[in-house]
Design a protein that fits this description.
Order of helices and strands: HHHEHHEEHHH
CATH superfamily of the largest domain: Winged helix-like DNA-binding domain superfamily/Winged helix DNA-binding domain
Distance between the termini: 57 Å
Strand content: 5-15%
CATH architecture of the largest domain: Orthogonal Bundle
Structural class: mainly alpha
Number of strands: 3
Number of domains: 2
CATH class of the largest domain: Mainly Alpha
Radius of gyration: 20 Å
Shape: extended
Number of helices: 8
Strand order of the largest sheet: 1-3-2
CATH topology of the largest domain: Arc Repressor Mutant, subunit A
Largest sheet: 3 strands, antiparallel
Length: 131
């Protein structure tokens, strides 16, 4: 029998092959999700898009701290990951709307859970005593 690795000694629950496979799968799934929605602004953008399509200017007004360059980058990445779509209306002046795809809509319960958790976290007794 092989000697356990340092990680297996530190984390005995990963000792069995089945446990390592589950850990590896969970790690990959979480890493994949974080690659899509991670970053400073993506979840905030998604929280606004859950409410329905938004125009670029609306998003800029909703998140005044974001730079134009960063907003464009985040929107492009979410579009490339098939989380949102960009619809261009051919009119003068040009109109562009961003809306969630079915993959993006699937994140709605997660966004709502994060919002609920954030409210509880902001209103926790320890924080209120600090103020």
């Amino acid at each position: 029998m092989r000697k356990p690795t340092k990680q297996q000694q530190d984390e005995p629950y990963l000792f069995s092959e089945a446990a390592r496979e589950v850990h590896s799968f969970n790690y990959c799934a979480i890493r994949s999700a974080l690659n899509v929605v991670g970053g400073k602004w993506k979840l905030l953008l998604l929280s606004y898009l859950v409410g329905g399509p938004k125009r670029y200017g609306e998003l800029m007004r909703l998140i005044p701290e974001i730079s134009e360059k960063m907003l464009i980058q985040e929107l492009r990445e979410l579009e490339a990951d098939l989380i949102l779509e960009r619809k261009v209306y051919h009119q003068v002046p040009p109109k562009v709307e961003y809306f969630l795809t079915p993959h993006g809509q699937a994140i709605q319960p997660i966004v709502q859970s994060l919002l609920a958790w954030g409210e509880v976290y902001l209103n926790r007794p320890e924080r209120l005593m600090e103020a």
